[in-house]
Amino acid sequence: MNLKRRLLVATMALGFVASAPVFANAADLIAIITPGHDNPFFKAEADGAAARAKELGYETLVLVHDDDANKQSQLFDSAIAAGAKAIILDNAGANASVAAVQKAKDVEIPSFLIDREITKSGVAVSQIVSNNYQGAQLGAEEFVRLMGETGEYAELVGKESDTNAGIRSSGYHDVIDQYPDLKMVAQQSANWSQTEAYAIMETMLQANPGIKGVISGNDTMAMGAWAALEAAGRTDVIVVGFDGSNDVRDSIMKGGIKATVLQPAYAQAQMAVDQADKYLKTGSTGLDEKQLMDCVLVNADNAPKLETFALSN
Amino acid sequence: MLKPFFLPVCLVAALCLLPACKIVKTDQASSDETPAGPEGDETRVSLIVEDSFASNVIPNIKSTATDISTLQKAVAKGLDAAGDAYGVRPSGAGSSWNFAVTGKGKIVAHNLTSRAATLDLDTNSDGQGDIILQLGPVVKGSALRDVSPTYVFTNFRDQIEFAKLGRALNTAALAGITPPAGDPSGKTVTFVGATSLRSASDPIRVLPIELEVAQ
Fold first, then answer.
1. Which residues form the signal peptide (chain B) (predicted)?
2. Which residues in A lie closer than 8 A to residue B148 (C-beta atoms)?
């Protein structure tokens, strides 16, 4: 079965987003598997990885697991069947994904993880994750400054099953809790969701009309909160998010949301492809398996330089 | 089927027997029974700090510390070259360079009342502050952890546990230094510590493990 045919089989079997044109001389294939592209963060990852892989002369197979570990497992089967030489993965669950990555390892296909960790080391070759704690501290420092170190605030937390929700919240509190005049009057999970954040923000405002600031575990929840604040005529409230999405960038530039923290999703995916390439050519990445990538504060000063999860110089 | 009163009777009987048991705590139990999840982090991390801060982190920083003026000159020519020569970057290109540093300078500004207390030092006698010593209790970064090769992220459960280690090391360092009393302006400070730099234009913020203010 030639590559074209194998790709076709993979396409028919599973949700298939896009692939590189098949070259006359079959090049090595890299599979890129992420959550759904309706969240621009994951689309930026997939685009970053695919662009880098093509630059380095690979063909790509871009797939989405929609945060479904069973689907992810099937996608691994399909990547293996398609003859992928390496897999770039933003996984569908820290525990549930270990088996899929192990399955690829068993047939000597190395996996390079981005964004989220898995609970076991020694299975993937690389795990490159954003330094969420460092990023949350940057966001919290800016929040404290904007709040003038005093006042009532609310926190919107991400999905509890996601490590990134807990680490961001603890990064926020390790800074904010040092300021005794900053009082958290409400804290609730909005599950990373814009619509949930909107509804929760409405309720929080009714119960706590004195709220002066909202710190949010990601940008989609920050957007939901901001929409609710606008609807209630409370655009005086300081909102800080996390991710560095174009939506929040635009809001910052219009004087809405005040700040966010950029996770370099695009560069992270490219770095994973670089490590895959080095590993395939030399048998080693030369780096530790687990790597932290620093986040960058984005506010009115540098927002215009932000595009698709990357800051231009 | 048991009659409804039977269970309470059993419980009371069991409670009466309890004083006869002696609960023996063994030393081994404390480390072996620490839960692997986040609920065990505090215990585990404080054991790690106890085991390694004085015996490993401090001697490593002292023996690898670069003189601050040497580092500043090197950074001015390019951060990556300075990092290759004097720093460590365990996470590779996406993270900051970490440096162990030592030096001496005159206090040109200070903020000792803030929760994030600092001293600005002039280390090259040009009258301007060129490094910031962090005195806490709020400090930025995890330079102590990241400059220490003994701590490898891969060996930790996840970012949460690793972040707690960074914070605990900062706390351990701050516990070992005495901030200057009164108005320290113009006094000379010698220090040993660690700093992280993301770009050559970043201000150099040092978390000291040793701090001495000349009287």
1. 1-22
2. none
Confidence at B18, pLDDT banded by 50, 70, 90: very low
B160 contact A CB<8A: yes
Angle of helix B41-52 relative to helix B159-175, nearest 10 degrees, comes to 50
Residues of B whose CB is below 8 A from A166: 38, 160
CA angle B194, B199, B204 (to 5 degrees): 35
pLDDT of residue A22: 41
Residue B61: helix, strand or coil by DSSP? helix
The domain B40-213 having CATH identifier 2.40.50.420: the answer here is yes
Å between A138 CA and nearest CA of chain B: 9
Chain B nearest-CA residue for A285: B92
User: In chain B, what residues touch A48 (CB-CB under 8 Å)?
Assistant: none
Q: Please answer yes or no on whether A292 and B95 come within 8 Å at the CB atom.
A: yes
* Residues recorded for chain A: 313
Lookup result for tokens 């635009």: A250
- CATH (one of 3.30.1490.100, 3.40.50.1950, 3.20.20.70, 3.40.50.2300) for A132-262: 3.40.50.2300
pTM of the model: 0.82
The parts of chain A modelled with pLDDT lower than 70 are: 1-26
